[in-house]
Design a protein that fits this description.
about 150 residues, mainly alpha, two-stranded antiparallel sheet, 2 strands, about 45% helix, globular
């Protein structure tokens, strides 16, 4: 059977592996399911809500509640940008990891739509630090390619 808009994947929540048929509807429920997992793990209500709203978009096209602009708590807007950067700079089964430059370009491209412009500006203004660099490694050419083979 071919699934046009869904696929079977394994998701780990709270240390328990679950096989879930992921579709657009289920994907949009991910923040709600994660909010519940945070509650069951004993996280306070503020942390639960940050998890719930970390897929809200600056322009209101996010989910699960369609919040926009300052309706989205600052912590959730920061988490949105940090999560996007970490996701972009981590390899996925369907694409290679972005370089730091590519990830920064993506954030700039989606600023004002998906991301709070002030949060993106703050992230991009940071001096490079170990934790941020750990996600995005610039691809170095193999040592042999640096030699002059004339």
């Amino acid at each position: 059977m071919i699934w046009a808009r869904s696929q079977w994947i394994a998701i780990t929540c709270g240390g328990r592996a679950r096989s879930v048929k992921m579709s657009g509807l289920i994907l949009a429920r991910h923040p709600l399911l994660s909010e519940r997992e945070a509650a069951e793990s004993g996280a306070d209500r503020g942390a639960q809500l940050l998890v719930r709203w970390h897929h809200e978009w600056w322009n209101g096209n996010g989910y699960p509640d369609g919040l926009r602009f300052e309706q989205i708590p600052l912590g959730a807007r920061i988490l949105r940008v940090a999560d996007a950067y970490a996701s972009l700079t981590d390899a996925r089964p369907f694409r290679e990891a972005y370089s730091e430059r590519q990830a920064r370009e993506h954030l700039l491209e989606w600023t004002g739509l998906e991301f709070d412009p002030r949060v993106v500006k703050a992230l991009l203004a940071l001096e490079p630090f170990k934790e941020l660099k750990g996600y995005a490694a610039e691809v170095e050419p193999p040592p042999d390619s640096k030699r002059n083979r004339g």
